[in-house]
Amino acid sequence: MIFVEDLALTYEQQNNNIYDNGVKALANVNLKARRGERVSIIGPSGCGKSSLLFILAGLIRPSSGNVLIDSCEPDSRRTDTALILQDYGLFPWKTVVENASLGLEIRGLGKREQSDIVIPILEKLGLSEFSTAYPAQLSGGQRQRVAIARSLAFKPSLLLMDEPLSSLDALTRETLQQFILEIWREHNLTLVLVTHSIEEAVFLGSTIAVMSERPGTIIETIVNPLAGTPGYRQRPEFHKVCSRLRSLLGVGN
Ligand SMILES: Nc1ncnc2c1ncn2[C@@H]1O[C@H](COP(=O)(O)OP(=O)(O)O)[C@@H](O)[C@H]1O
Ligand SMILES: [Mg+2]
User: What is the homologous superfamily of the domain 2-80+157-249 according to CATH?
Assistant: First the structure.
């Protein structure tokens, strides 16, 4: 489903200045994922994780290398790839149902068609009673679920999430991690999740791609078959993979 080969990305120079050669964000990135896989991407801040997701979503073009999603070049107009941004991207002046319908509205669906699609999703995500609330009236976890509802409205097959849980408290975070697993299962998704949380990467990713400092490259791909199984957090294997990540990322044990 995802095929990335020798990918490099340099942001072109920002100033008309001979000393500015641009920012080398990614170099030599290789990544493959099968349909239905859950890939966690973890790496230091500024190593190019968001840039990589934007490339997969077709929002920016790599400077070199090959990228294929389902054998096609990424294209931001494809509705089967959904990207959830770090700050949820909700409009404060729109209600929950309006925010969740936004993509459908942009694509010209009528109000009735929009609600036929969105209402059942909101129900599923436990947001029915908040459908006329505004984002400011919701908790962080609820806002994140609205953002998820919005992307599910297109029935995507590939869901890209950029640090979706990083601004949530620990309890909400664990609940939503479980929730992401349920969504993945029910919607037959391929999932790519960027995170800077070691525990989150290990709990969710059946594959964990570890990135280096900028220019970011994938220094190791860890196979993590027990991810998502009940009680995984309590198992010794979980802690072993966490320690492995800590040493790869050069953080204390
Ligand atoms: N539009 C841009 N123009 C120039 N440099 C950028 C742009 N976007 C990101 N960068 C730089 O590219 C590097 C990687 O950024 P990013 O992909 O956001 O990293 P991460 O998500 O891992 O924190 C950073 O050094 C950042 O400053
Ligand atoms: Mg980022």
Answer: P-loop containing nucleotide triphosphate hydrolases (3.40.50.300)
